[in-house]
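Box 3.1. Reading complex inputs
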Amino acid sequence: QNDGYRTLSLSGLVGFGSLPDQLVKKSTKQGFCFNILCIGETGSGKSTLINSLFNTDFDDPVSMHFLPSVRLRAQTYELQESNVLLKLTIVNTVGFGDQINKEDSYQPIVDYIDAQFEAYLQEELKIKRSLFSYHDTCIHVCLYFISPTGHSLKTLDLLTMKSLDSKVNIIPIIGKADSISKTELQKFKSKIMSELANNGIQIYQFPTDDETVSKINTVMNGHLPFAVVGSTELVKIGNKTVRARQYPWGIVQVENENHCDFVKLREMLICTNMEDLREQTHARHYELYRRCRLEEMGFRDTGPENKPVSLQEAYEAKRHEFYLEMQRKEEEMRQQFVQRVKEKEIMLKEAEQQIQTKFEHRMLMHQEVKMKLERKKKVLEDEISMFIEKKSNAELFQSQASVSTPILSLKRDKDRK
Amino acid sequence: SSLESAEHSMEPPAVPEEEMPLTTASDPEGCQLFGYVGIEAVLDQMKIKTMKTGFEFNIMVVGQSGLGKSTMVNTLFKSKVSRKASQPGQEERIPKTVQLQSVTHVIEEKGVKMKLTVTDTPGFGDQINNENCWDPIIKYINEQYEKYLREEILITRKRKIPDTRVHGCVYFIPPTGHWLRPLDLEFMRRLSKIVNVVPVIAKADTLTLEERAEFKQRVRASPRGAPGVPRVPSQPQLKARTPQIQEDLKTHAISVYPQEDFDQDPDDRALNDRIREEIPFAVVGADQEHQVNGKRVLGRKTKWGIIEVENPAHCEFPLLRDLLIRSHLQDLKDITHNVHYESYRVRRLNESNQ
C-alpha cells in the first residue's frame, strides 16, 4: 500500500494533519459545480422533484407536448448553504417521449453529453489553458424518470439508458410514485432491476469501498430505483409545515420515508455521494470519451514498432498533414476560380456575339423598311402629281366650259319649261 | 443554512424549434433555499476522499554543505527523513559536481498519510568554480515536469498521475550577515521562475538578534504593507529598519514564495503580506531534545545556553514550519500545478511547434 517506501514514525506534532482542511478551504473558496441531467417524459415530475430536492423554486416553465423533437434546456443556478457555494446546472429534456416517432429521441441527449466532454477536452488540449477556473459543464449525474406504470420499462427507456450508460452516471427513478401501492411497487422495482441487468445496462452504483459510507450505500443500492414524489406545495400537518400532496383520501408527505424514497434520494445524491459522482464522471466517463476521441483523431500511445509515441510527434504530424491539406485546398480553390473566370469570359464573348448579330440584323431590317417607305413615298408623290395634273386639267376644262355653258343652260331650262 | 439571494435574472435565449442548444446558459441565477438541503456535506465527502488517497509532497533543499539542511528537514518533519539519516555510515564527502539525491518516506498524522520526498543537493556552491551549478537542479525540476506531462498526455492515462514535481525549494542563505552573494542571487533568480523558492537564513544562531535584523534589512525591500493590515507584534529590534534582503530581491526581480502575483483575494493578500514581511526566516535546526524549565524541547545546547528551536523568541523556525506545512502546503502544491507546471507545458508545446 505504501508503494514500497519506508514508513517513519513522527516524534512530535508536525502539523500536516490539517492538510484535508487546507484542501477543503481552497475548494470552498473556488466553489463547487454540480450538473444534473433529468430525462423523462413531459409530465413525469422532473421539475417538481428538482424543486423539492433543493428546497427552492427554480422557476422552470412548463412545456407542452407538441414539440417536434427533443431539445435540451440547461439553466445554471447559484446556491449557497453556510459557506459552500454551489453552481448547480439543471439540464432538462424537453419533449422527450412526446413524438409519434421516437427513433431520434435519445440522440440529442447523447450529443449534448458528448458536447460537454468535447468542450472540456478542447480546453485541456489547448496550449495556454486555464483548467483551474474552467466552468465544468460535464453532466455528473443523470436522473432517469421511469413512468409509474407498475409493469416494466418501456422500450424507449431501455434504448435511452443503453446509449447513455457508458457516458454518464445513471440513477433510475420512478416518478410520481404516489400512484403505485406498496406491494405493486416492490414487484415493479425488481422487474425494473432485472430488466436493466438483462439488457446489460450499467447504472450508477453507490460506492462501497470506503468504510464510512459503505454500509449505508450498500443498503441504498438495494432500494434502487428510488420511488419518489415531489411537491411544491406546503401542507400543515399537526404543528409542522411540510412538502406534501393533498388528496381527498390522505396526504402524501414527500419527506416521510414511509411514503416515498425522496429522503433516500436526497441523502444519496447530495449528502453522501456528490463528490463521488463528480469524480466518476471525470475518472471514468470523461477518460473513456477522451480516449475514444483521441484515437479517432489518429493519436496512438505506441507507434508501429510498439515504441511509445509522444503526443508531441503525433501533434506535429497532424499539424503537417493539416497544413498540406490547407495548401491543397487553397490550390483547388484557385483553380476553380480561374476556371470560373474563363467560363464567364466565354459566356460574355458569346453574348457579345449575339448582340452584334442582332444589331446587324436590325440594321438590315431598318434599311429594308426605309427603302419600302421611300418607294411608297415615291408612289404617293407620283399619285399626288397626277392628281394635281388632273386637277389643273379639270380646272382648265371647267373654265372653258363656263364660257359656253349659259346658252346650254338656258336651252335646258327652256326645255324643262 | 443561510439564505443567500443574489438574483441575476436571466432567461435562456429563445431557441427556434430546429436548433438544439448544446451548451449551457451563460449567467447563473441566484436562488433562495427554503430549508436545509445538505450541500455542505460535500466538504466532508471531499475530506474523506482525500484522506483515503493520501497526499504527496516533494521538497528540495538547496545550499552549501554544512548549513544544516538535513537537520532542518528532520526538524520540520520530526523524523529522520533526510538523505543522511537514511544512509547512515556513508562517508560525507563533498562531491565534485552537484548531485541530486531523493529520499521518499511515508509519514502519517491524524489519519492523514503523506508520501514525502526530500531532494538534497550535495555539492551545490561547494566548488571553487560554481558557475552553472544550478543547471543540474533546473534539469531535475524540469525532468519532473516532463514526467508528469508525458503521463498527462497519454491516451490511456492513470487515474492518479504520480506527482514527483518539486512543490517547494528551500534555499539556505549562509548567515554571513552582509548581503546576498552573487551565487544566491543567480540561483534564486533562475529558480523562482520555475519553482516556489523559500529562502531561509540558515544557522541563525550565529547571529545576534540585531545582526539578524540588519541582515534581513539588507536583503528585504521596504515593506509595501497593505493599508489597514496590522503588523504582527514582535520584538521591536527585528523590525527596526527597512529590510534589505527584500530590496535585493526586488532589485533583481526575484519573486519568492508566496508570490504577490498569485494572491487570490484580499484575505489571501493580507495573510501573505504579513508572511512576506518576515521573509527570509532566520532558522535554527535541531534534532535533539533537552530539558528546559521542566519541559522537553527541541534545541541546540551550547555552553552559553540552550537555543530552543520552537521558541519564536529564539528563531523563526515555527514560522517556516507553519508556512510550509500547517497553512500553505496545499497552496504550494496548487501553485506548482496551476502556474509552474502550466508554464512548463506551454514552453514545451510551443517548442515542438517550432
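In summary: Chain B touches chain A through 88 residues (CB under 8 Å).
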